[in-house]
Write a structure and sequence with these properties.
This protein starts with a helix and ends in a 5-residue tail after the last strand. The protein has helices spanning 2-21, 28-44, 49-76, 83-107, 116-142, 151-159, 166-176, 184-197, 247-266, 270-275, 294-309, 331-338, and strands at residues 214-217, 225-226, 238-241, 319-329, 347-356, 359-364, 377-381, 389-400, 403-412, 416-422, 431-436, 447-451, 459-464, 470-482, 486-493. The protein has a six-stranded antiparallel barrel. Helices cover 40% and strands 22% of the residues. The protein is built from twelve helices and 15 strands. Helix 5 (116-142) runs antiparallel to helix 6 (151-159) and helix 7 (166-176) runs antiparallel to helix 8 (184-197). It has 498 residues and is an alpha+beta fold. It folds into five domains: 1-201, no CATH class; 203-242, no CATH class; 245-309, no CATH class; 319-412, Beta Barrel (Thrombin, subunit H); 416-493. This is PilZ domain-containing protein.
Length: 498
């Protein structure tokens, strides 16, 4: 019986090894299912330690390859995810964590008295395990889902062995930056950026110096918490850390991009800058990740720096409420409604979970019209009302492909449809926009909400249709908000049109 069991174990080890050496399947779901099946069989078998370790390391390489393919897919779709992709992401994140735990278990027998080579081998496996934890967190965040159960507690424990580990530092920084408020494309860029920068994230000196830092309860399965939002529990095994050591390198990147973009604006080359590859703007020949335009990169780096150095605080208390509202997703859809288009196929019902004077948290109760992501504009109103409250999506959470929660920031309590054209743009450059009224004390001037990339100069022309056609020249007062989907700028009527 023992001999038969050993033969079966050897057969499974050989089968797993042959699969790992073969080419990946064309469909990522098939490749992932095969990996999970082999991992399950290996767990039931009892191979020798050396063979098991080699298999787990090879499995980690294959899992990271699968994750790279899934990341590409996540950047091409909106939320909510197609059910098949949601299943793949969930299973992948769990598989990454399972492999990380397997690697750590293989290295667990290395004690303090072990030889130098054995200690180095354990350190390498722990680093690989943390890299897998980081990847599981990234793919979960890109799908707007929670991290796998047990991921943070496992990562906190391993990070105690390797202070300053890059994967853990990047994972903590991304969590501290509120990943639910970024798009999948932005999160993928941030992950690649941090991997290339090797950010320095150092422990804070003491609890008194952690106003702009974060803490984690090492024994808890939870992401970092800002000290400005909540104080750590007394007497717990708390680890403090700060992003301040990374700020000089981050600020240098920001200043560099500002200089290049300002030079291009002065030379009338904004169109070229928008289309240029980001790596061509890097004077130090240390290529930034691809995927975003220079202006998008600059806005993103500024946001990250602000959140890492001055974590945002909620200034208005959210009150729990439960009532139905009608929602219309997208600037174009709202613009068409204001111009008299029918509401059919544009308006769906959602449920308000809580609200404050400045925003809402809502959850879908039926089908979703349009793709959702942070930065998208939507209109919200109670059934029976005629005016729409204009909001921007600040964060998205979706642990279930049939359920999405949105955090909204109110931009205006009403709007009207206009068309805007900035100087230097051709006739086809006329863009639909929403005219927003003054909203004291947040906004002291009227504003326009337009598609991202509309704002190109200080002066522009806008027209409003109605009983009478109104045409005027405005002077923009600077961008107040810029997302991957829209931009908002206040303006005043230009008294000296030219």
């Amino acid at each position: 019986m023992i001999q038969a069991a050993r033969v079966a174990d050897d057969d499974e080890t050989d089968s797993f090894r042959r699969w790992l050496e073969a080419e990946p399947a064309d469909e990522v779901a098939d490749d992932l299912d095969a990996l999970r099946a082999h991992l399950g069989a290996l767990q039931d078998a009892d191979p020798d330690r050396a063979a098991s370790s080699r298999l787990m390391e090879s499995a980690a390489t294959r899992a990271l390859d699968i994750s790279a393919r899934v990341r590409s897919s996540l950047q091409e779709v909106g939320l909510p995810l197609p059910r098949a992709l949601h299943v793949v992401v969930t299973r992948l994140a769990r598989a990454l964590l399972a492999i990380a735990q397997g690697l750590e278990a293989e290295a667990a027998s290395t004690g303090p008295g072990a030889a130098r080579a054995e200690r180095a081998d354990r350190e390498a496996r722990v680093r690989l395990a943390l890299l897998l934890c980081h990847e599981a967190f990234v793919v979960s965040a890109m799908s707007a889902a929670s991290a796998p159960l047990g991921l943070w507690a496992f990562a906190h424990r391993l990070a105690g062995e390797l202070p300053g580990d890059l994967s853990y530092a990047s994972m903590a920084l991304m969590a501290a930056a509120q990943p639910e408020s970024f798009t999948a494309r932005q999160l993928n860029w941030i992950a690649d950026f941090l991997a290339a920068q090797q950010p320095a994230v150092l422990p804070a000196a003491s609890e008194e110096s952690t106003e702009n830092a974060w803490w984690v309860l090492v024994s808890a399965d939870a992401a970092p918490v800002s000290s400005a939002r909540r104080l750590p529990p007394a007497g717990g095994d708390v680890r403090h850390f700060s992003a301040a050591p990374f700020d000089p390198a981050l600020l240098a990147r920001i200043r560099q991009l500002e200089a290049v973009i300002a030079g291009a604006e002065g030379g009338g080359e904004m169109a070229a800058v928008d289309m240029a590859e980001v790596e061509m703007l890097d004077a130090e020949d240390e290529a930034l990740p691809l995927g975003l335009t220079p202006i998008e990169v600059l806005a993103l780096l500024r946001t990250l720096r602000e959140r890492w150095l001055s974590p945002p605080l909620r200034t208005q208390r959210r009150r729990p409420h439960h009532y139905m509202v009608q929602v219309c997703v997208g600037l174009r859809a709202l613009w068409e409604l204001a111009r008299g288009r029918e509401e059919a196929d544009r308006v769906v019902e959602w449920q308000v979970l809580n609200e404050s004077p400045g925003g809402y948290a809502i959850m879908n109760i039926a089908g979703i019209k349009g793709e959702l992501s942070s930065g998208v504009v939507l209109g919200l109103r109670r059934p029976g009302e005629t005016s729409w409250t204009v909001c921007v999506v600040r964060w998205v959470r979706s642990d279930n492909p049939d359920q999405v929660e949105l955090g909204l920031q109110v931009l205006a309590l009403s709007y009207s449809a206009v068309q805007v054209a900035f100087r230097g743009t051709p006739l086809r450059g006329v863009a639909p926009a929403l005219a927003l009224p003054v909203m004291e004390p947040v906004r002291r001037h009227a504003a326009f909400l337009a598609p991202a990339g509309t704002y190109t100069s200080r002066r522009f022309i806008f027209l409003r249709e109605g009983a009478q056609l109104y045409v005027a020249q405005g002077r923009a007062l600077g961008l107040d908000m810029q997302t991957t989907s829209v931009e908002l700028f206040q303006y005043e009527i230009d008294p000296y049109p030219i």
